[in-house]
Amino acid sequence: MLISFGASRNGPEVRESIQRFGEWERISQSSIPLHLGGAHFVTVQAAVELQLMCEVERRYGDLSLDFIDSERFAKIVADYEPSDRLTTTSLETYSTSNGADYGRTSPLIQFEVYRSAIQARKRLGLFHEVEWVQFPRSYAMSRYAVEHPGIRLGGSGQLNITLLFGFSPRLPFPKSYAEFKRVVDTARKLEYDLAAPGVKKRHVTITVGAAVLPEQAGRHVARLDVGARRGRTACALRRLATYAAQPDSGVDVLRFGMEDTPYAVTMRDGRDGELRLADNCGLAEIVLGEMAANGARVETDHDVIFDRMGLNWVKRSLLFEQRQRPLGRHADPQGDRALQSI
């Protein structure tokens, strides 16, 4: 099992620390070895893409998928210089309270923080992963980070993309399997560089999750349009599990739990859409039931998992690199004034 460690990025104690020491404080756990409690996955990209990609949009126009996949975007990667203009950063979200307030920073600050986080994880032999909460803006940021010579997201040859459907209006929960597949297939494109679309440069795996608030659960109850239970009414979690379990889904990891959907939806006795409290064990039963109905199974062989997730490089590096820092000493970019924020 891969366990993700998380920490508040926007709580009062974090904001106070950012004011004192700079923007790096928000995601400093990303440079700490796993065995000392370091974060397993990076949530740094949400703030970065707001600053950098919004500035790119202002300069070059809206970021459509065709534009991001074009030579014009490759030129942006080469030519764009993040500005040091301080602006207030916020993200419209469904699933957090005050979690979308990223304070007052600049594109340059966010660029330096992102670069430092990726470099620190590479030095420590840690998993490369980013979370998408907007679309296609998140794709644009990931494409930029993959190809930018100063960042090289996935430069180790491995990258996992977590698609958190329903977190924000820009990445809503999909209305159909086709809509779901469109986002997954777009993330898969990051295996290739724009300049060499036929040459696989990194192994990309996909995690999918559903961050749906209880008050929004009813609007996502719909009939399944794919799978063995096609035509049956299903809630968001059941639909997500069904979509992920399809042979052609392109999904590697199905994420579920109380952080995303701390409830279950009753789907029987003519009371479709009735909510009840749930725990992680109950949610697991729902997910496993939908997977089994669609002919999918849970992989438990750790060698197969490491191979599928592209983690063998991490596995080899972790034993050597992390033990060079037995007291938890890690990369500290705070000396770089570019990381400071107001």
Structure explained in plain terms:
The protein has about 350 residues and is of the alpha/beta class. Helices cover about 35% and strands about 15% of the residues. The protein has a 4-stranded parallel sheet. A two-stranded antiparallel ribbon has the order 1-2.
pLDDT average, as an integer? 86
Which descriptor suits the 3D outline?
A: globular
Strand-residue proportion: 5-15%
Task: State the helix count.
Answer: 11
SSE arrangement, N to C: HHHHEEHEHEHEEEEEHEEEHHH
What is the alpha-carbon Rg in Å?
Answer: 20 Å
The percent of residues in helical segments reads 25-40%
Largest sheet: 4 strands, parallel
Strand order of the largest sheet: 3-4-7-10
DSSP strand tally: 12
Q: List low-confidence stretches.
A: 330-342
Q: What is the distance, rounded to the nearest whole angstrom, between the alpha carbons of the first and last residues?
A: 39 Å
Structural class: alpha/beta
